Description:
By secondary structure, the protein is mainly α. It has three domains: 201 residues, Clc chloride channel (Orthogonal Bundle), CATH 1.10.3080; 191 residues, Clc chloride channel; 80 residues, Alpha-Beta Plaits. Helix content is 65%, strand content 5%.
Amino acid sequence: MKRLKAMDWSRISYVLKGVLVGAVAGFVVSLFRMSVYAILNLMPGVYESLRQNPIWIIGWSLLVMFVAFLVIIMVRDEPNIQGNGVAELKGQLQGTIKLDWFSVLWRKFVAGALVLGLGVPVGREGPSIQIGGVVGQGINKLFKGNKTQENIMISSGAAAGLAAAFNAPLSGFVIILEEVHHRFSGILILSVFSASITANFFAFYIFGSQPALDLGYVSEFPIDNYLYLAGLGVVLALGGWVYQKVLFQIGPKLFKKLPIPRYLHGFIPFLILIPTGLFWTDMLGGGTSVIAEIASQRTSTWLLLGILVFRFVIFNIGFGSGIPAGALVPSLAFGALIGGIYGNLSIGITGLEDEFVRNFIIYAMGGFFTATSKAPLTGIVLITELTGSITQMMPISIVCLTTYIIADLIRLEPTDEVTLSNKTHRLPTVFEGKVARLDIFVEPDSFLDGRIMKDITLPYNAKVTRVIRYDNEFIPHRDTVLMAGDELAVSCDRGFITEVNKYIEKLN
């Protein structure tokens, strides 16, 4: 009895809540995944029928435009379902964006299933993460939890969403800690990992336990040729720079020049679907089929380049139009195509066997993900889980590490962070009369490292209300000296949280 009383029931409660969130989010995201598969699997047959009966193209075009109209209406009524959804989830955690969980849940589910099912070349991971996250938010509201508990439940649901979408429980766990929170906390780990494992159980039960992207046997890469992996990392980092340049600068400028209103941009990717389905059906969908195809046999460099350019253009049209669209699977496809091109060229120089092109394809997926997310650990774990290539972790790590270093040198920012920044910069800075909190980690050699509290002045009356140092938690006083690794809880009015966050980022 004494042992039971001595147990930390607060931690156990978070495990139980994580299991609950994982079960509900895993079930909902599995339904979402099944809906996408059910519609997408019909597309080859539909377009085969259209090729045999061209007159039906008129009716199909009208149906596709009606679906596009429905998606546009849902986006108009709930703008937070646009795009990936991960940036909006981060904004909700930071307090810069307020999400109506039920509104986002059903609209993202329906609109995402229609967009992905019809074959728009975008990914399902973003919608899955956002759906899982708002499920966690809704469960927290049911239990009447506070803001801290809400953030943990949202994070748990988001991890469960990715786990259920790709049979990848470790990736769901790591991506939340590395890419979303940038920190490791005991309570957060317990809840997120519990949710991720539970959601993955549902995915295993429904879809089977095989890897989501099974590319077959992968040979051990010769250690004498590891220098070529470092070269691949450099190429992928530069590819990530081009990717972000087009996504955030060139693409938006081109959309602004179109002679149609912004709300009609959502029709464009659906219009492109029809000729794509008729003449190149294999290009429908996020890109997993493309990855599997080029990994199964050696493909000519010119064909790989053509596929890369085509998919890059139509992805940017789909993502930039504002419809619900994930970016992870398309970015993996871009990495695979770049890896295939690089592999062809490297094999011509080194004399390696053709089978090693598959190695370059797998490694490049992790590297390109790292370039666009600045999350190398997630890239390593994700590719290992997706492909089941546990024996390839060392070469994947070399590519991801090299990519990360070069991406950092050329000052690439995580895609979701840039998306969130672009969105919140348009929000008005006004006093709301509600307290919000930022959790900040003091970075080594930053302005904050070694600084005395009395020398730090934060804008908009923001205050550091708590410091966590190792296992100790205390309220700072004027003479407290901050140290690298300290976790700071900063409180301010919710209306000013974006500006306060930007100010602290400059210091840190």
